[in-house]
Write a structure and sequence with these properties.
Layout: H1 10-16, H2 22-29, E1 37-39, E2 45-47, H3 50-54, E3 62-68, H4 78-91, E4 96-100, H5 105-109, E5 117-118, E6 121-124, H6 126-130, H7 136-156, E7 163-168, E8 172-174, E9 184-186, E10 197-199, E11 201-203, H8 208-215, H9 219-228, E12 230-234, E13 239-241, H10 242-245, H11 248-255, E14 262-266, E15 271-274, H12 289-298, E16 301-305, H13 310-325, E17 331-336, H14 338-344, H15 357-376, E18 381-386, H16 393-405, E19 410-413, H17 415-418, H18 424-436, H19 451-462, E20 467-470, H20 472-483, E21 491-494, E22 514-523, E23 528-533, E24 552-553, E25 559-560
Parallel strand pairs: 3-16, 3-17, 4-15, 4-16, 8-11, 17-18, 18-19, 20-22, 21-23
Antiparallel strand pairs: 1-2, 2-14, 5-6, 6-14, 7-12, 9-10, 12-13, 14-15, 22-23, 24-25
Helix pairs in contact: 4-18, 7-8, 7-11, 9-11, 13-15, 14-15, 15-16
Length: 563
């Protein structure tokens, strides 16, 4: 391994990698039949849903969830650890498969710059995956906006359903960060151009169709979920669904090919199913249920990730996705970096290169809270300390000794620099705890609890809040939802990823704080109620210097500037 590889960018490492034709992985590693995969070029393929039908009686592999502490600008590397761990398991002769989300183009061009792992633990081809990939997000955007068009056309053509234009809850979407489109007016220009009304844009990954896409377990289930979408209310305040409009068949048709999971590979040729990509701060933050279930049928171990910290993605994976998909996770990996822990301990980003064990030890309070959260679900776990080149021996020794003193299984992880080899210690520790520790997986709440009880459980157990307060708007919405018979649905919290609170600037492990629910909305097709906290937005804006400024393409057609 190149000892100077930390001077190379992720895209340089990716472009130097030798990929195997995806046909070989499909047939030799996954043992798929010729009609069970469809090639999208030489290194990408879509897998037929018939694979699940053929293997329905075969036992499923063990599902390993990778989560992290609250993310910081210092970086945590959760996707990198996910990929590196699967590679390490394969080096240990375990049949492992990665299941990850598809990146959204908006954050890729905005702040994030890419989302396919890093260094020698990446999924490839990273340029394709980070840009248009196989067109899944385009299909979801199209289906979402087709529905918006159908709604406005229904109103223009006489409005038989008596939809109140002031109470339409369905928004248009775009797979880009564009704050200017958050609130708009449509239908201007006279009678031939539609009925004027206020409208809004979300980013594509915040669409309920994305959530449905990632929770459906078949085409038939997709169709029935799309039919249940509530698009707004009538003048008499009765909910209107897609089924009332009659367009569930057309929307399913738009999505039928996108619903097939995408097969790619890691830099070490471990198969990876990259499919679906809801954000964890405004949606449920997990790759598609179909991809996870298919990976579990095709491998002995599935290494999957859920967005942001355990307070968001992991909570939703365990309370929503696992419940809907009847998944019983075997263990959880909690990723932390010394850099991020020092930020949670009070250091500024430009001070992180300096050794500071005091700040590190102060920051472990955030890690402790996420460990407590995973324990509350009854799951065994391992803390993965994802090593950065600026970490000192004293800091590394300090965090590992803290883990040992507090009986937290842990391992130093060097998968960015060394690929699967750098995750062998983590993989062995994980296999050990799966075999030796009791798994008492449980949900944090019963769906029979009230909406407020479920929100209270999440806020107090997962965030460590003292309680929950509601705006008058949220109070009214919750009352209406329960009258309509929706109170049994799980809760999907929309909250900042940077803090355990609903205020992004409060790091570490705060105490004696309240969570404010400002608004609720029903995602009846997805099967949950979204509770929006603080100032969280469903259409991000671009930073002052977007990552897109560094992106380009060479005359030979190679992408540059993708992280």
């Amino acid at each position: 391994m190149n000892t100077n590889n930390h001077f190379k960018s992720d895209i340089e490492i990716a472009q130097e990698a030798l990929l195997k034709p995806i046909k070989l992985l499909a047939e030799d590693y996954l043992e798929l039949k010729d009609d069970e995969y469809e090639l999208y070029g030489k290194y990408k393929a879509k897998l037929s849903l018939n694979v699940l039908d053929r293997l329905k009686d075969q036992s499923s592999g063990q599902v390993i969830l990778v989560t992290s502490i609250n993310p910081t600008p210092a970086g945590e590397g959760k996707s990198t650890v996910t990929v590196g761990l699967a590679q390490a398991l394969n080096q240990l002769k375990k049949r492992a498969i990665v299941a990850m989300r598809e990146p959204s183009l908006g954050p890729t061009m905005g702040l994030k710059g890419g989302a396919t792992g890093g260094g020698y633990s990446q999924v490839l081809p990273m340029e394709d995956i980070n840009l248009h990939f196989t067109g899944d997000l385009h299909a979801i955007s199209t289906a979402n906006n087709a529905l918006a068009s159908f709604i406005d056309n229904h109103i223009y053509q006489g409005n038989v359903l008596e939809i109140d234009p002031r109470r339409i809850t369905w928004k248009r979407v775009l797979d880009l960060n564009d704050r200017s489109l958050r609130n708009i007016t449509i239908g201007l220009g006279g009678p031939t151009n539609g009925v004027p009304r206020e409208d809004h844009f979300d980013i594509t990954v915040a669409s309920e169709i994305m959530a449905i896409f990632c929770l459906a377990d078949s085409l038939a289930d997709l169709r029935s979920r799309l039919a249940r979408i509530v698009i707004g209310y009538t003048y008499s305040n009765k909910p209107v669904t897609v089924a009332d409009l009659g367009y569930e068949g057309a929307l399913t048709l738009i999505l039928k090919d996108a619903l097939k999971p995408n097969l790619v590979q890691t830099i070490e040729h471990t198969p990876a199913l990259v499919h679906g990509g809801p954000f964890a701060n405004i949606a449920h933050g997990c790759n598609s249920l179909l991809a996870t279930k298919m990976a579990a049928k095709l491998g002995d171990y599935v290494v999957t990730e859920a967005g942001f910290g355990a307070d968001l993605g992991a909570e939703k994976f365990l309370n929503i996705k696992a419940r809907i998909g009847q998944i019983h996770p075997s263990a959880v990996v909690i990723v932390a970096t010394i850099r991020a822990l020092k930020m949670h301990g009070g250091k500024k980003k430009d001070e992180l290169q300096h050794e500071d064990t005091a700040a590190l030890m102060a920051g472990v309070a955030n890690l402790t809270k996420h460990i407590e959260t995973i324990k509350s679900f009854g799951l065994p776990y391992v803390v993965a300390i994802n090593k950065f080149t600026t970490d000192t021996e004293k800091e590394i020794k300090g965090i590992l000794e803290w883990c040992k003193e507090n009986s937290h299984p842990s391992a130093l992880c060097e998968v960015w620099e060394h690929g699967g080899k750098g995750g062998i210690e983590l993989a062995r520790k994980l296999l050990e705890i799966i075999e030796s520790e009791q798994n008492k997986f449980q949900y944090l709440y019963s769906t029979s609890s009230s909406i407020k009880q479920k929100i209270f459980h999440i806020a107090t157990i997962v965030y460590g809040a003292s309680g929950v307060q509601y705006t008058s708007k949220a109070e009214k919405q919750i009352s209406e939802f329960e009258k309509l018979g929706w109170g049994h649905l799980p809760i999907c919290m929309a909250k900042t990823q940077y803090s355990l609170t609903d205020e992004a600037h409060i790091l570490g492990r705060p105490e004696n704080f309240m969570i404010t629910i400002r608004e609720c909305k029903v995602s009846l097709g997805a099967g949950f109620i979204v509770a929006l906290t603080g100032s969280i937005m469903t259409m991000p804006g671009l930073p002052k210097k977007p990552a897109a400024l560094a992106m380009n393409v060479t005359d030979e057609g190679l992408a540059t500037g993708l992280f």
